Model the fold of this input.
Amino acid sequence: MIPLILPALVLGAWEIASATGLLRPVFFPRPSTIATLLVAQIADGTLLGQLGLTLARLAVAFVLAAVPGVVVGLAMGMSRRTREGLDPLFALIYPIPSVLFLPLVSFALRAEEVAVAVTAAFTSFFIVAYTTMTGVQQLDRTVLEAARHFGARGPRLFLTVLLPGTLPAIFTGLRLGLGYTLIVVVAVEMVGAQRGLGAQLWLSWQILRVEEMYVALVTVAALGAALTWGVERLRRRLIPWAQDIGEVGA
Amino acid sequence: MAPGASQVSIRDLTVAYSGRDGRLVALERISLEVEAGEFVCLVGPSGCGKSTLLRVVAGLAGHESGTVEIRANRPGRPATAMVFQEHALLPWRTVLDNVVFGPENRGVPRAEREAQARRMLDLVGLRAFARAYPHQLSGGMKQRVGIARALANDPEVLLMDEPLAALDAQTRVILQEELLRLWAELGVTVIYVTHSLEEALLLGDRVVVLTARPGRVKRVFPVPLGRPRGLEARALPEFGALVDTIWAELREEVLESAEAERRVPPS
Done:
């Protein structure tokens, strides 16, 4: 119950302030009005359409970031040469906000949807790669030595020691990367798409249909929370040995 | 003891590293013969290279000159298996899957290796914990798993690097007794590194005292106490006398080692 007290107070105060004119309803419509519209948009299917589109873009972008990110991160963690070869290039590209690549990528790729996904994947790729790399580097040396001593070599060493040992770090990278991909997908939709939650948010703001903007906002927030929850569930399932460690860290 | 009849034969072994400050000799012309089934304890001041010696025998570290030979009585069996000080279990594997790890890597069929692992878990009293993860176990239980893992690999020589040093006093005493029981039951050769003279006398057939760095064999003491040996051995007058004798040898090495550390502050 305690976590609900503060949001309930804020919403209640907002409702009253908006109803009494203390807040301008043009910018801050009553939460009950927003909720009614939310339900209506769910009922007529418009919201689900927007959500589905954003979700599809997010999925493609995330796969584009996560798969190469994990592979490159593992390679950088295991081989100093790979790390030293890629580091300067990555250091140059990583700090650039992903959205800035949109014009260039759109021009190079033509297909709009592909451009959105590639742009949204950029920064998440680096997040996943660097977190994975750090995970490999922080593997317990004694455990590695013991594994070799008991005969694990080559692909066996990779599959039975390196990969499971890096899995907690990979999951941290995936969770951060997923959150970041969502941010960039919505941002790219705002500037470069006709449909999707980001587009709805931006277009409804442009024509001052503020209730619709809030509906999009709430949906993006709920989507982010649901994804974080889902990844955490998956982590607990796949990494049962790291529960306690994760809880100390959390 | 005739050369060649022993299980482990270390001759003129020198281990050196080249670092920033030039060549650092860790072990110098170590010679040691260990008989099959013997329990040999290595003691010495910290930094004398006891662990290094064990790692060279295990094949985990290289050496500059000299030879290490381990006579294989049964071909196809791994020569050594190590019990690490910090247990070094794989955190993502259950107790059973940790214990089968060595045989699994050697391609022993699943049914066979799991049966063997369960026998070893029985021996160390952890059968009920086969499905637990290491983080769910106490320090003493983890080290029992470490011992079971080493024994399940069916080695010619069991190498133990201060395996009980990180445990509390009561747990250590219990594991010392269990270790003696296991050793008597399995007849495996053991080389055991410890910093505790009492532990060395309680467990060992012989106690090898190493000098301060560079580590050399200073003296080898046979332990004239009978077997089976239990904790009550500590009350015997011979026990106390031997502790005093060995400590007299060890003391100057510990002092010299401490002196050397003062001269060269650890970087």
Summary: The CA atoms of residues 85 and 163 of chain B lie 4 Å apart. The mean pLDDT of chain B is 90. The two ends of chain B are 43 Å apart (CA to CA). Chain B touches chain A at residues 58-60, 78, 81-82, 84, 86, 88-93, 101-102, 105-106, 133-135, 149, 153 (CB under 8 Å).
